Amino acid sequence: MKKFIVGSRRSQLALTQSKQFIAKLKEKNPGVEIEIKEIVTKGDQIVNVQLSKVGGKGLFVKEIEAALYNKEIDFAIHSLKDVPSVLPEGLTLGCIPDREDARDAFISKGHVKLSDLKEGAIVGTSSLRRGAQILNLYPHLNIEWIRGNIDTRLKKLETENFDAIILAAAGLNRMGWGEDIVTEYLDPETMLPAIGQGALGIECRIDDLETLSLLATVHNSETEVCTQAEREFLKLMDGSCQVPIAGHAVMSNDEITFTGLIMSTDGKEKYKVTESGTDPVALGAKVADAMQRNGAQKIIETLNNTPKSN
Ligand SMILES: NCc1[nH]cc(CCC(=O)O)c1CC(=O)O
């Protein structure tokens, strides 16, 4: 039997989620041989610059996609929220497995709740989406830029001048750290998650039938449908990482309900639309269309024209 080679970033979270995914594949496909090849991406190397200013999240996938094209690897395990909404030609998402918790987790010194933080308290995040939503609800707080892997950020909360940080619950759960350190999980009304948050996207070559049939064994069609609505919205609205954008879909009784959100960076302008439907792509498009009619496009145009330096 063929041995499959899977590409993974080298961060602790990437390797952990790769190992967990491989374990699931092995459970469904006893005897299958899978080996991890670690790949260092630009996004991992550049740590001192705000990501949205140097090319955005695509930085985490480029080198991995090159390895797919060169057939050095058969598939790659990404956090879906790091995967651009349009894939390069010849590559596809071979499966979308079960979704982890999509919410954001709030972690503060002394376990003070978000709503109890004092005037001027400093919340560390490098996400425009998280910053804008916090400022919209709590304009008396300060947002300061923080970067690094999850463990680095947790350390910085202890050692630097932050009162709180926000991290994806999914990453914490996969590392097995969730319950112990989280002050509160933020519901989507307070903090709408990033598009694709909590889900994985498994990327492979579109013509590699052997890999596609292996991946099909761990596919979750509910997650696929929800994230399709989210990613269609992202594709139609944005194009860059300069814009605070969020979106989350849930399914019940075969109906998908999707909420999309666009904000100004300071949180003062807010466009939020919720729609339901059964066709995920049409639903994502419907919300994008409603946003554009509301005037959300103005925010996007302004932010996309802001110079990238400074
Ligand atoms: N932005 C980086 C990133 N990409 C994926 C996750 C983990 C959560 C997920 O799988 O959605 C994280 C960390 C975070 O946002 O706290």
Automatic annotation (TrEMBL):
Metabolic or biological pathway, per its Swiss-Prot or TrEMBL entry: Porphyrin-containing compound metabolism; protoporphyrin-IX biosynthesis; coproporphyrinogen-III from 5-aminolevulinate: step 2/4
Catalysed conversion reaction: 4 porphobilinogen + H2O = hydroxymethylbilane + 4 NH4(+)
- The domain of life is Bacteria
How is the co-factor bound, per the entry?
Answer: Binds 1 dipyrromethane group covalently.
According to its UniProt entry, the protein's GO biological process terms are: protoporphyrinogen IX biosynthetic process
| Residues the record lists as S-(dipyrrolylmethanemethyl)cysteine modifications | C241
> Which HAMAP family does its entry note?
Porphobil_deam
Q: What does this protein do?
A: Tetrapolymerization of the monopyrrole PBG into the hydroxymethylbilane pre-uroporphyrinogen in several discrete steps.
Q: Tell me what this protein is called.
A: Porphobilinogen deaminase
Species assigned in the record: Macrococcus epidermidis
